[in-house]
Design a protein that fits this description.
Distance between the termini: 26 Å
CATH class: Alpha Beta
Helix content: 40-55%
Structural class: alpha/beta
Radius of gyration: 14 Å
Oligomer: single chain
Number of strands: 5
Shape: globular
Number of helices: 7
Length: 128
């Protein structure tokens, strides 16, 4: 039986987004069912396609480049190619000032918070 890994992304810091993207790719490549839920500032960056412009720790982008690691947007795209799904909570979208039109084609589904809560039952939940 596949394990479910849920990544709750609340911190819009570049190095955190790279780390969580790497975990999403790894979990999906190992056969986990991966659910990604960006919230608040991360959801706003997701909607505006500006994840890769998030503030970063000094020197981190250079160390990342030296390891030939792609930016967060590409990591999450790779995870999606491996079967990961991205959800946005309608309440969090409104809090972030993001509309469903802003997220069209960028998330797999808009869901209510109670639905997301139910998806976490029995899952490995990672909060960033």
């Amino acid at each position: 039986m596949r394990e479910r890994t849920v990544l709750l992304l609340a911190t819009a810091r570049y190095e955190i987004l790279v780390h969580s993207g790497l975990l999403a790719v790894t979990a999906a490549s190992l056969g986990d069912e991966v659910l990604v839920m960006p919230v608040l500032g991360v959801l706003k960056r997701w909607a505006r396609a500006t994840l890769d412009l998030s503030p970063a720790e000094v020197g981190f982008p250079e160390r990342q480049a030296a390891l030939n690691l792609p930016p967060p947007s590409e990591l999450f795209a790779q995870a999606k190619q491996l079967g990961a799904r991205v959800f946005a909570c309608d309440t969090h979208a409104r809090l972030a000032g993001v509309t469903s039109a802003d997220l069209s084609g960028k998330v797999d589904e808009m869901i209510a918070l109670p639905t997301f809560w139910k998806l976490t039952a029995g899952a490995r939940v990672l909060n960033f």
